[in-house]
Amino acid sequence: MRPRLQSRSIHVAVLTYHRPEPLGRLLPVLLIEAARHEDSSPTDTVTLVVVDNDPHGSARQVVQAASVGSPSDPSSPDLRYVVEPRPGISAGRNRALDESSEADLLVFIDDDETPHPGWLERLVRLHDESGAEAVAGPVRSVVDAPLDPWVVAGRFFDRSHHLGRAQASVLPRAASNNLLLDLRFVRAHGLRFDDRFGLTGGEDSLFTGQLVAAGGTIRWAADAVVDDHLPSERLTRDYALRRTFHIANSSTRAEGALSADPRARARWVAGSGSKAVGRLATGVPRLLAGALTGNVRLQSRGHRDVARARGTASALLGRHSAPYGGREPRDESAPILVAHPSSDLYGSDLQLVETVRGLRESGHEVQVLLPEEGPLGAHFTALGATVDLVPSPVLRKSLMSPEGLMRFGLEFTRATVSHLRLLRRTRPAALLVNTVTIPAWLLAARLARVPVVCHVHEAEADQPRPVRVALAAPLLLARRVVTNSQASGEVVTGAIPRLADRIRLTYNGIDGPTDPAPPRRRAASDPVDIVLVGRLSPRKGSDVALEAVALVRAEGVDARLSLCGSAFAGYEWFEQQLRERATLSDLEDAVELRGYVADPAAALTEADIVLVPSRVEPFGNAAVEALLARRPLVASATQGLREIVRDGDTGLLVPPDDAAALAAAILRLTRDPEAAAVMADRGRADAIERFSVERYRQDMAKHVEDVTAARAGA
């Protein structure tokens, strides 16, 4: 037991910043607590010190009102008010230390808390009985509105584990929202709150850790309880996740600051790194299992684990959050980064050119990140954007094997670290990821705290649910998800329903010819030229087109098919199958595989009929291009194509993977050229109205600007 001083000065400090109502509720209770303690311990004098971190002194009237309402007895507790103009919680706590330079004990309590009766007496009693240099007490969360079941399931505000801690147990460090300090020990060792943590928090973990390192002891006063009142605006999922990230980040940074020598630093890096990996390894499976089963508890705790992992990892990388001073100011000249998995010139590639054009027209600097040299890059440099070659692993079906997934996992880890370094060096205003198939960019951006827009061009509805969930899960890291059709949005929300509020539908914008040549005048018995523009792959239905043309030729029609497109990497076998099929007698000399075509519009001009026979098609740029080219169109009734083509009015729709139905539609257009021409005219007018490239550019620029504006205002 520490010897009692014959007379002792105790200061109770409250730091405040723009919280008049909670402060007005707290001060009368503290005055009662102080008076009660002075009554029970006549040699103790208690002074309340309010430190206002608003340089304009906005809390002054609240403190004056509490002073007027306090007992008129001259012996009643003193209430002081000071303004600390330097921003940050460390500055406020150090001001409290300075105002208590003659005091013996200093007690901190937050301005949005309320102590239980006898709180101050219990803190002081344990200090006197144990001789501890610091005493901490429990903080109980109190909410005034019903909590979201998702927040409850994640136990984001649950502090019950603290309430079960044994009385007088020893702590390695403590928070400062219910903390008593022996100022004789603090002054003897020159302890101060570190200004580096002033805007981020974690200053109390570092301070109390330094107190222990200096030989002090922190004891737990289980009966000295305060209530922390959580307002409704703090009960949201977003706040809960940000708070979890912040706590992990600030506590990890404090541990690093306590690790002074190289060995301790190495142990901190290894331990924190292992902690981050472990939390990620726990959280991601929980997230996926929760998404698959709809289990709210698994989803919520998975998000909590991932947020803690992110907070720990970001601290290791030298990043911090700033809840007590806002985020770092955003450089208004910071570029928009755009990540893309290909350097070719097909549908989504050309669509990205229009996205970048829209960003440039809106006055943004744009830096495009491509995996390799290719024809796409020149289009961006012509728009005034810069192009850098930054490979990123791409999720492909060919990776769906244990060996492939392991290889992808290693490449994904290396790429995430590399991308994170680039993002930290570049400090972009936002990142636009032009596909869901390069998830390393999404994770790196979240770790770098760069807002992300992900443009989803995929709609893998035919995949097993676990695969769809795995593909959609990285979208949880994006601020906004842009889908190019209702179909692609439905696939995403079917896998992970909670992504619905992030999704915005923006149809692709296609820049067609201003005055396309009319279709060739032909009689019903004339030969017919059929064109299919698209990559050679099973999903594009190139093989279905060959079988349909064979059926058309069997009806005595001289039909010729041109395939304009090359195979995806890894699908060379499919191109070979097409070539072999085209050599059979029913298609001999009727099929031409042109390979990559730089000018699809010129190829469409040669067509009497255009086919888009895709088995799956999230949107279908080729279909819109055919409509704008004023050519009769036959497309599969699948996904986005059903949103583009008005069956029987602007084109014909047939069941996907049905060569007989496709052949029947071709014959219908072939045998009635006049009706086909009328349909083509209606198709062009409809496409101009609904798929304007000007509208697309404006919408995409706005999506990016929305997330940068949200970041600046956060």
UniProtKB/TrEMBL annotation:
Using the record's annotation, list all stretches that form the Glycosyltransferase subfamily 4-like N-terminal domain: 352-511
A single GO molecular function term of this UniProt record: glycosyltransferase activity
Question: Which SUPFAM superfamilies does the entry link to?
Answer: Nucleotide-diphospho-sugar transferases (SSF53448), UDP-Glycosyltransferase/glycogen phosphorylase (SSF53756)
Q: Any idea where the Glycosyltransferase 2-like domain is?
A: 33-146
Q: Which UniProt keywords apply?
A: Glycosyltransferase, Transferase
Q: So which residues are the signal peptide here?
A: none
Pfam families attached here?
Glyco_trans_1_4, Glyco_transf_4, Glycos_transf_2
Q: Which CDD domains match?
A: Glyco_tranf_GTA_type (cd00761), GT4_PimA-like (cd03801)
Q: Name the chain's protein.
A: Glycosyltransferase involved in cell wall biosynthesis
Gene source species: Terracoccus luteus
UniProt lineage? Bacteria, Bacillati, Actinomycetota, Actinomycetes, Micrococcales
